[in-house]
Design a protein that fits this description.
- The complex is a heterotrimer.
- Chain A is built from nine helices and nine strands.
- By secondary structure, chain A is an alpha/beta fold.
- Chain A has one domain: 3-Layer(aba) Sandwich (Rossmann fold).
- In chain A, helix 3 crosses helix 4, helix 3 runs parallel beside helix 5 and helix 5 runs parallel beside helix 6.
- Chain B is built from ten helices and no strands.
- The longest helix of chain B is centred in the middle third of the chain and has 37 residues.
- The radius of gyration of chain B is 21 Å and the shape is globular.
- Chain C is an alpha/beta fold.
- Chain C has two domains: 133 residues, D-Maltodextrin-Binding Protein, domain 2 (3-Layer(aba) Sandwich), CATH 3.40.190; 111 residues, Periplasmic binding protein-like II (D-Maltodextrin-Binding Protein, domain 2, 3-Layer(aba) Sandwich).
- In chain C, a hairpin with a 2-residue loop joins strand 10 and strand 11.
- The radius of gyration of chain C is 20 Å and the shape is globular.
- Chain C starts with a helix and ends with a strand.
- The chains are: A alpha/beta, B mainly alpha, C alpha/beta.
Amino acid sequence: MVNYPISFSLDSVSVKRRGKSVLGPLSLDFKVDGFTIVLGPNGAGKTTFLKVLHGVERVSYGTVKWSIPDAKARQSQAYVFQSPIMLRRSVRQNLAYPLQLVGMDRAEITTRVVEWAQKIGLQDVLDFPAPRLSGGEQQKLALGRALIRTPQVLFLDEPCANLDGRSTREIEELLKNATQAGTHIIMTTHDLGQARRLAGRVLFFLNGALHEQGNASEFFIAPSTSEARAFLNGDIIE
Amino acid sequence: MNEIWAGIQEAFWLIIILDSDLIEITVRSLKVSFTALVVASALALPFGTWLAIRRFRYRRVTIAALNALMGLPPVVVGLIVYLLLSRSGPFGVLGLLFTPTAMIVAQVIIITPLIASITHQAMRELWSEYHDLLISLNTSKRQRVAALIWDGRRTLMTAALAGFGRAIGEVGAIMIVGGNIDHATRVLTTAIALETGKGDFALALGLGFVLIALTLVVNLAIHALSRTEREGTW
Amino acid sequence: MIRFIFAVLIVFSTQVQAETMRLAATTSFNNSGLSDVLLPAIRMDTGLDVQLLIVGTGQAIRLGEAGDVDAILVHSKTAEAAFVAAGFGTHRRNIMYNDFVIIGPRSDPAKISEAESAVGAIQLIFEARNSFVSRGDDSGTHKKELALWSAAVLDPRHFGPWYKAVGAGMGASLNSASGLNSYIMADRASWLNFGNKGALELLFSGDPMLFNQYAYIVVNPDRHNHVNIQAARRLEQWLLSARAKSIINNYKINGVALFTFNGSP
């Protein structure tokens, strides 16, 4: 996959729900490159930020523009939701679905499905109904399904929030492989350890606003704002 | 009591020897109600699905109207269809009154709102579950509808079966628009009404047993379907 | 899509129209069992598939007026005359007759079996306020019953709850009378063929006023040009034929002839 620069630009974006401002107003020009972690306490607007970038949620005001034309933008992206959304079908059919949508031919779909099933470690349960998998297995399936079209940008919303240590490690492994294969990742988490392990860049959100951004190493060693410092310290900030 | 007991015995006998009247009436019942089911489903399933995923201004009103139509007394539907299809009525030229077609029309009108309502409910639930994923995958409207209908197929079948159950047990409307003509528009329910009215319980009970059996089969099928839904098989 | 549905509907409906005709006939005609004998003979002799709509005379007349049937077979001379006079039918033809009888509980609390006339019998029922079931459906039988009350200078609209208008056909009404152990006026043929007599018995008959004439009327094609006029006329010819005469006169239950043919071609 060709690795060329992708960027997005938010212009005065704000999202209001039931009259309350959840995100923004936010203006940001950002070049997507490598592994970006979106950090912040609960309710900071991280999930909304991701959904608005991907187009799964509508902005109340402002515009979101990607460097790729809109029609192709969402197609070259993928999203893993905090609670994995399983199609009420087998593991195999879940993996195949995104490929069927773009009209890939049967034989190729079968090959890719088997290949990815092995990558995510679900090759033994290919014909098992997905909704009956365990939480960790479902999240791996969601990830496999997201990566099977080799997206340029992969969004993940707290993918390991409800998982045990082993599943978390497996998922992080898959994510590292994906980055090496050329997929850019934008991921939210409130697990500081995970953030430290994976981040290349950091976007720190607080109360619906982007508070700080920068290189991961700089951010973790010497954050610029006192709130970021407090957050990294493990304090509760409002 | 003796008459009823004698009737029950004769009824079983009619079933065992496959009495020709019994068979003819049963087959006609199945034809009429099954055709009504097919037509009603063709109308109701897409409509219910579309209603679940489309946002438009009169959505709430439409849903309320749909639920109200479900409560339409079947016999009133029969009356209206009769007036429409009578030779002196607007569609009289079609010559449909007192034919099985008129009965199918009446039954379609009666069961379509029911099937549409159940479909809408099920599809709405499924849509809220799949919503974010299907948008994320950049699906077209048609692909979304296809995914919902396929994954919700068991509930849709349940809706169809519910409609069939309602149709096969209906008597008021089809009596009016069909005329209960022997060898032409007489079906299980209208025959039971006729024979009971004449005090001829043997045939009425025989037909009644057949109707009960059919209804049981329908309900067992619904039960089996919801079980496979829960277990995630098929 | 709509066009497709319509096409299917039309195919379905035309399947029924091959050599068939629709006849609206009274419930008493059907409940006597005579139609079960006549229809197969008609099919055999004329090739006609007569679809029988069993309704009360009043409704039969309305079906004829609306053009929803091709001919009617009813038993109320005044209604028939009005039908023809208004141009809905071209002419009426007598086919056969029988008589009405008054049925009641075996114990006969109103003692109508000793009455001298039909009007007298009905008066006794009124005076005893005995349970009485009326057709109440604007049928020929119902009209005859109302004529009896009228001759006795009584108005059923002011009767108490002992007078039960069931709004049903002859068989169903007899069934109700049997269940309620009531008096009821019926045509002899339906009574003889009725299978659920319970404790009821034939208590009064023979008054000339209870004469019951059945007539056949073809619906006027000038009023409704889709009427299957060929078939309706063929049926008329057949109903007036010697074969019909023989079947009708020989239709017996327990050795009793139910109808007498009096058609003249």
